[in-house]
Amino acid sequence: MHVVRVERVFKDYLLGNQIVQALANITLQVEQGVFLAISGPSGSGKTTLLNMIGCIDMPTEGQIFINDQEVTCLSSDELADLRSRTTGFIFQTFNLLPVLSAAENVEYPLLYRSDVSKEERKQRVKYFLNMVGLSKYMGHRPNQMSGGQRQRVAIARALAIQPAIILADEPTANLDKATGTEILHLMQEINQKLKTTFIFSTHDQRVVDMANRLVRVEDGSIQELGVRRGGEWAIARVQDYLAAAVARELDTSGGDARASLGIPAGGAH
Ligand code: ADP
Ligand code: MG
What we know:
Blueprint: E1 2-15, E2 18-31, E3 35-39, H1 46-53, E4 61-66, E5 69-70, H2 76-86, E6 87-90, H3 102-107, H4 118-131, H5 147-160, E7 165-169, H6 177-194, E8 197-202, H7 205-208, E9 213-218, E10 221-229, E11 232-237, H8 238-253, H9 255-260
Parallel strand pairs: 3-8, 3-9, 6-7, 7-8
Antiparallel strand pairs: 1-2, 1-4, 4-5, 9-10, 10-11
Helix pairs in contact: 4-5, 5-6
């Protein structure tokens, strides 16, 4: 089953009186349990795509399905409810509440869950702070912790709702190299242990190589899709698919069209 399906999604932003096309015709499926990197340069649409998948914002056109449920037709209350059960978020700037302790930050999203008792909340806070190695920091506030520790709190907070998907927008961008790698390893460990699907964005090639699925975007479009088995990436370039489709079209319309475009016989397939 696909935990996320994105079908022909477009997203335009209105900036003053100008339309900015942030996503153009994105179609993509995400299998359950993968460790997926969305890579691309700054401004390519990574955050916009994560916001669409996380139901933080709605596409201008197209559909999003989470666990086969279409979310692009839900009311804002229904969306908030779905988010609080299925999607954990990790941000570049950690986004912890500064006046709350680590434990209170992790507990916070659970306060919106009437199905989780107070006792269960306290248990989950302990369990997930322990999982990220912060048992001794339950009472610390964000400004009493390092960047890496803050991101660990954010990971525990995302896990506490026991989500099907964790979305992480450039989770290592504000950390030094060693701490960033540590955080990625922790996410990877959790992915393998709990089978939580992770979708994270990055513009860092080292981070991409820790993933087992890749979606590379540029100018709001998908350029490459990748699957890694063992150490080897199998990469499909969307351009090649298009070239193959054009070649098939030319095949059916005859060799003359092919020659007139300068495509050698037996070319792209
Ligand atoms: P990335 O995360 O890859 O850096 P973004 O998704 O943030 O890219 O942005 C994609 C494009 O959409 C950029 O051109 C950006 O300027 C534009 N954009 C993003 N958010 C908004 C917004 N709220 N209003 C107007 N333009 C936006
Ligand atoms: Mg971004």
